[in-house]
Design brief:
The complex is a heterodimer of chains A (340) and B (321). With 340 residues, chain A is mostly helical. Chain A has 15 helices and no strands. Helix content of chain B is 75%, strand content 1%. Chain B is built from 14 helices and two strands. The longest helix of chain B has 28 residues. The chains are: A mainly alpha (340), B mainly alpha (321). Chains A and B meet through α7, α13 and α15 of A and α6, α12 and α14 of B.
């Protein structure tokens, strides 16, 4: 939580010309909701502010943030990537095989599993660009293909004898309550913010997503840029799954659900709540970060409120539905009052 | 002439593939064409066709409904639960099941139509709501007390080959076909899918079409959910979890345009049949069941490629004219 707010001030520094605008922004709305819910949970539950809970919450947030980013970088193109869950689990199973089957060392396995994720993402990208078919249907197909290949090759067996460093890293506590995983997701957020704000590659990605024809005419290689976006998505999905593996201590074929479906909700909610346009061309790294924080916070708080874990999903879905609707309402009101 | 007419239809190629596949598999594995196996195949086709129709209608208006499986699952456990816990008579349980499906579809449709938020996001959120209610009610435990006549409906067949489950499927199929091809509402539905702006300019209420189509989709998902209960003989909370890929694959293989405005009922039926035959063949040839998943995905990619080729051919042929 505190770290999330820290990053908000950071990016506000580069945008101080419009503090007024920030108060009407999506990011501020999310921050407000986060503070409100955190306060409610802190007052109503006994365990919310405990060191252990904050630590566990931080770990969950860090994974959800990277899952959200893995979707965000493709939404930029006006497309989407349903196969993030499948790519993630396929990549860590590949990593697990490298470690257990091939006896390679940790850094090598880590680099290769990231590259594997990027490759699967790039395959999506190439097919989307070459066929001109919407990425929804391409990635719907590949989510099935990747997951099927992974489960066939592994025969649905988990890798449970990973080097102890993996689980140790997942259990590490900095100052008693900060997980190193959270630092990784913060690092990714900063890198992505730099990519979109300061590099020509990031600018090209946004331009190609906003208007492919115009971008092409201004000399952007739109096809290559889209493929890179998909590759980046695969890489981030692999990273998120690796972080999940650190938390659980094993690479398990079902860790992202049947054909990776369990990741769909967190993957879309973070960027969409964060104000990333589904039509492409606009992105909010900070918003996606806050979106993921909000989702993890709600899950955590509801469980602490002793909402049965079976009902949490329903309540979460309803809360998220209302969040999207409220966001819509806020925009309408702001537009009518000419605030934006 | 009829042959020429048949060849002109967009699904003639698919029909040929299906017939050739049946002949080839029947030749290699005679057990494929036994009455018992045909009955299993038709039962699978019946259930999957209703699922595919539920998605196909939404694809027709250029949207998507990720919650088809969640609605089907919620209806399935409600249907079984009403019979198990409250001993409700079957017609009443069916009626309540249909109403739940209708209400869930209306819920999606109203929110999408009135907010203009993308159907993808709304149905993703409602998926979570419906699935959550399902798990909240069942606590992940199935309902076993399904009425005997429902069980026997799901397992009986006419002449040893035609499962009774084919009846609700045919009702849905004919209903949707008539709706799309013979009724004004269906034309309007496809018009909205092709271009909402143009449709509203000629006086079609886009809002009503969106709401009505989602309600119909929910209704069809409900029928499918109850059919699965009859087939499985229990009300399992996991019903609907694996409908997502299938619901899109069949219409797309059948020639549906994802951007909306163009769907094909017969093509979708052939799409469902293709998937069922391939799945069945993999089982008969004792191929690893995990591979089914890969095949499903590849089938979608193949269908998309074929559709692209057909578009290309159409534009090539239409140029001289």
């Amino acid at each position: 939580m505190s770290s999330a707010q820290g990053s908000s001030t950071k990016s506000m520094g580069s945008d101080q010309s419009s503090i007024r605008k920030f108060f009407f922004s999506n990011e501020f709305g999310l921050l407000f909701l986060i503070v409100v819910f955190a306060t409610i949970f802190a007052l109503l539950t006994t365990g919310f502010t405990s060191r252990f809970n904050l630590y566990a919450l931080g770990r969950n947030i860090s994974i959800d943030v990277v899952i959200g980013f893995s979707m965000m970088v493709v939404i930029v193109t006006g497309g989407l990537n349903l196969s993030v869950g499948s790519i993630g689990v396929s990549a860590v199973m590949f990593g697990g095989w490298l470690l257990e089957g091939m006896g390679s060392n940790l850094p090598v396995a880590f680099i290769f599993l990231l590259l594997g994720g990027a490759l699967l993402g790039a395959i999506n990208g190439v097919m989307v660009v070459r066929t001109g078919v919407h990425s929804f249907i391409i990635t719907l197909a590949t989510m099935s293909v990747y997951f099927g290949l992974m489960i066939w090759l592994t025969q649905a067996e988990a890798f449970r004898n990973l080097p102890p460093e993996v689980a140790t890293f997942g259990r590490t506590k900095i100052y008693g309550y900060l997980s190193p995983l959270l630092l990784i997701s913060l690092g990714v957020a900063i890198l992505l913010a730099i990519l979109y704000r300061y590099t020509s590659l990031g600018r090209n990605m946004l331009a190609a997503g906003a208007n492919p024809t115009a971008a092409e005419l201004s000399g952007v290689n739109v096809k290559r840029t889209f493929i890179l976006c998909h590759a980046l998505s695969g890489l981030l999905a692999a990273l998120a799954a690796t972080m999940l593996t650190c938390r659980t201590g094993a690479a398990i074929p079902s860790m992202t659900g049947h054909i990776g479906q369990d990741w769909l909700l967190p993957a879309f909610l973070a960027p969409v709540l964060g104000g990333t346009l589904l039509s492409g061309g606009k992105v909010s790294v900070l918003g996606t970060f806050f979106g993921a924080v909000l989702v993890s916070l709600l899950t955590n708080g509801l469980l602490l409120l002793q909402v049965s874990e079976f009902w949490v999903q329903a309540v979460l879905g309803a809360l998220l539905l209302s969040a999207v609707l409220l966001e819509k309402l806020r925009n309408v009101v702001l537009l009518q009052n000419r605030f934006i | 002439m009829p042959l020429q007419k048949l060849l002109k239809t967009e699904w003639s190629g698919l029909l040929l593939v299906v017939i050739l596949a049946i002949m080839l598999i029947g030749y290699l594995k005679p057990s494929f064409l036994t009455p018992f196996n045909i009955q299993i195949l038709l039962a699978a086709i019946s259930v999957n066709m209703v699922i595919a129709l539920a998605q196909m209608l939404i694809v027709g208006i250029g949207q998507m409904n990720l919650s088809v499986g969640a609605i089907g699952g919620l209806v399935a456990i409600s249907f079984a639960g009403l019979m198990d816990v409250f001993q409700l008579p079957i017609p009443l349980a069916v009626l309540v099941g249909l109403l739940i499906g209708l209400a869930a579809g209306l819920f999606n449709g109203v929110i999408i139509a009135f907010t203009g938020i993308s159907a993808f996001i709304i149905t993703l959120a409602s998926l979570s709501v419906f699935k959550g209610i399902n798990l909240g009610i069942t606590e992940a435990q199935p309902f076993y007390g399904v009425a005997e006549s429902v069980k026997s409906f799901g397992n009986s067949s006419l002449l040893g080959t035609l499962p009774l489950l084919i009846i609700p499927m045919l009702v849905c199929l004919v209903g949707v076909w008539v709706l799309l091809n013979r009724m004004r509402y269906g034309r309007h539905l496809l018009a909205v899918g092709a271009s909402p702006t143009a449709a509203s300019l000629v006086g079609i209420s886009v809002r009503n079409i969106v709401i009505g189509t989602h309600a119909l989709s929910g209704l069809l998902a409900a029928v499918a959910g109850m059919m699965v209960v009859a087939r499985l003989q229990i009300g399992q909370p996991t019903i609907g979890d694996d409908w997502l890929i299938l619901s899109f694959a069949a219409p797309v293989i059948g020639g549906a345009v994802l951007a909306g405005g163009h769907v094909n009922v017969i093509g979708t039926l052939l799409g469902v049949t293709t998937i069922a035959i391939i799945t069945q063949a993999l089982v008969l040839f004792e191929i690893d069941p995990f591979i089914v998943q890969i095949f499903l995905g590849l089938l979608i990619l193949w269908a998309v490629g074929i559709n692209r080729l057909r578009d290309l051919r159409l534009t090539l042929f239409s140029k001289p004219a």
